[in-house]
Amino acid sequence: MRNVGGVPTCLSKIDGSDPTCLPVDAFSSNSPVSDAVYAWLSGVGTRRQQNDLQVINGVVSGTLEDYGLKSPWATNGIGFAITGEYRKYRNQSAGYGAWSTFTTFDGQTSVKELGGEIDIPLIEDRPFFKELSVNGGYRISDYNVYNNLIHSWKAEASWAPIDGLRFRGSLNQAVRVGVLQRLEGENRYPNTPMLDLCAPPRASADGKTIQRYSFDQCSIGMTRAQYDALTSYAGCDSRGFCPTTLVNGGNSELQPERSRSKTLGVVFQPRFIPGLSATVDWYDIDIRGAFEWTRIDMAFDQCYNNKVEFFCQFYKRDPQTGRLLVADARYNNSGYTATRGIDFGANYALDPKRLGIDEDIGTFGLNFNGTLTTKYERQFAPGNTPWSCVGYFGFTCRDPMPRWRHVAGFNWQLPWVKGGFGVTWRYTGPTTNSKLSTNPVLAAKPGETYPLLQRIPGYSYFDFAANVTLVKGVDVRFNVQNLFDKDPPLVGDAATAWSGAYFNTFPTYYAVRGRTLRVGVSARF
């Protein structure tokens, strides 16, 4: 905002970036909101996005038993598959959103892939070796946007000593190329205030002027000549925020991220409990060069206070004047993520006749899937202290990361009609505000005295679903999500120190629409 001839005028109107901008003082009763101002403040957001995918693939598969390639202790021969595929992907996006900025871009990429897989039965139908087999696969990908070929592979083993009991394990290397993160256009926002205490803050009206950093503090990210040239600069406010151009969006230099995963598990299908199948799988996933958008709000603190040199590159200065020209918040490959846990699964199909009920009352089913997360460690950049978000939500962790989550269900297939109904229980475990952590990366800094929502309790939601075939070829479906209309936790930014809860809650984990009813009909002719 600037005073132009005694008239308050938007900076965006002065520089031409938004000629329609109208000023308003939202904190004064002497500044009524006119219809024109209200219309400008409450614009309608629109967005158009189109994704096109073209795929050509081919597969050759078979067994090598006819060629004598078979284990002498196995019944079945070695199986193989060779695959080739070509994919072309195009992403177009455009639009404008009130209170949001949608990226406008039009990009495309293509890939040629060649892969192979082999399955080798080693031992079959022998004492303590009902089945022992190994499986391997390899894939080579040639993306038009990368100079080098990309390799991924897998190695798996399975051992069933007896019927109903199987042990399994795997080692995999996977890649993610970040098509959207590369293709997405670059956005530039001029006159964005960013913290820069290496420039002199403006004197405060209350006399509590913030002290400018010394050259020793700033030397990691600038030269002495730049520091001295900034001495007479008067563009920063009293809090130390200076105007610059914020850049975010896609990064054409982004490289693939790579993950290495290990799993060990057991499958239990006891013959003495017909219909029961249970699984327990331990997993360990390590992602290197992970895609991260630069947390530019942390860049100054990490560079000039914690001396993490990696973050200094995102504050780009004028070589002569030292002024902050660009704050770079685009995607990069700085991330590291390591997660570990145990997945539990169970399914039980119960025929009432096994309980001595002769009358045909249908069949019942129980199912359960749960995850215990024991580790979720992240690191934004090399040299940055890693942290674990297990059991936390908040400023750095963003979305909740509960230690325990599960989905359990019951269904009844009716004998009198072709259909049935079921009930599902969705549970998300409790989490604590990350500002209360003892890890200095997550914990509140001195002086952060705002009120905190300390904890989100465990949440349970119940859903109901039913389906029935009215006549041959006509099916009706009905379901209710959040059967008891339970409200989500409200975790406004003011209470959580900018937790990332843009919708005043976390819609990925909690029901934001209340009770939702759906009815559907399918007809086949």
TrEMBL record:
Report if keyword Flavoprotein is assigned: no
Q: Which UniProt keywords apply?
A: Cell outer membrane, Membrane, Receptor
One Gene Ontology cellular component: cell outer membrane
Please list every transmembrane segment annotated in the UniProt record, as residue ranges.
none
Q: Where in the cell is it found?
A: Cell outer membrane
Q: Does the keyword Membrane apply?
A: yes
Domain (TonB-dependent receptor-like beta-barrel) spans 34-483
This protein's source sits in the domain of life called: Bacteria
What protein is this chain from? TonB-dependent receptor
- Recorded source organism is Sphingomonas paucimobilis (Pseudomonas paucimobilis)
The major lineage groups are:
Bacteria, Pseudomonadati, Pseudomonadota, Alphaproteobacteria, Sphingomonadales
